[in-house]
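Justification of computing resources. Each target in the renewal requires a structure prediction run like the one illustrated here; the chain below, 245 residues long, is used simply to show the kind of job we budget for.
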Amino acid sequence: MKTSPTITPGLLHELREFDTPLLANTINFIDPTPTHEFYLSGEIQSVTPPLGPTVGVAFTAELDSSTPGGTAETDLYWEQLEAMDRCELPIVWVVKTVGARPEHECVVGDGMAKTLFSVGCMGLVTDSRVRDVPGLITTPFAAYCRGRAVHHGALRFRATDGPVEVGGVTIHPGDVVHANSDGVIRIPPGCLEHLSAHAVRNRAFEHEAHMFLRRTDRSPAEKRAHVQQLVAKYGFADCVSGGKR
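Resulting structure tokens:
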């Protein structure tokens, strides 16, 4: 898996200081990527909310855990674990399930979670389900998914290290994924290097705006005008006028 040289452990640790919706709003201010290309659908939710935010570079896989019959095919999984172990960055495992019984898919339990965590994988994003949630939390291994399932069939890994579509968004190996209890985003690479600095300003903008918006002694017109002034004050006016927000 190749990653941009601008992605460093320090950069990813900085991004953990921000909640995911704030980063999504900031991306809209500073990057031309259409919104629908970077935020995953609301079906993908955290089942381990105490562990967020979660951030890392994506390792991807396609897994069949539900088709009846057959035997386990896990060579690709163990090979990917070896690759994760060589990676010097925090990792998020992004898994697309491809089995015949979608409602019976289940990607990980606490045993796999411990193995993944041991090689630097901070969590999972999947269009499927997980089990053993208390064990995931104590590992700690974050999971963003469609919920829980009590079991799975034979685990058959069909592919690794290619683009996968999860939650309506295509994620490539090496993409930076950020997630918390509100959901999951893929950070566009063009804004990654400067996202933290802009997010600091956006956090200050939102704090000042929200103090004014909650007031009961100001009219909606006054609030609209004040927010527009704050947008200019914090340096986002050009982004708004350019249609990015």
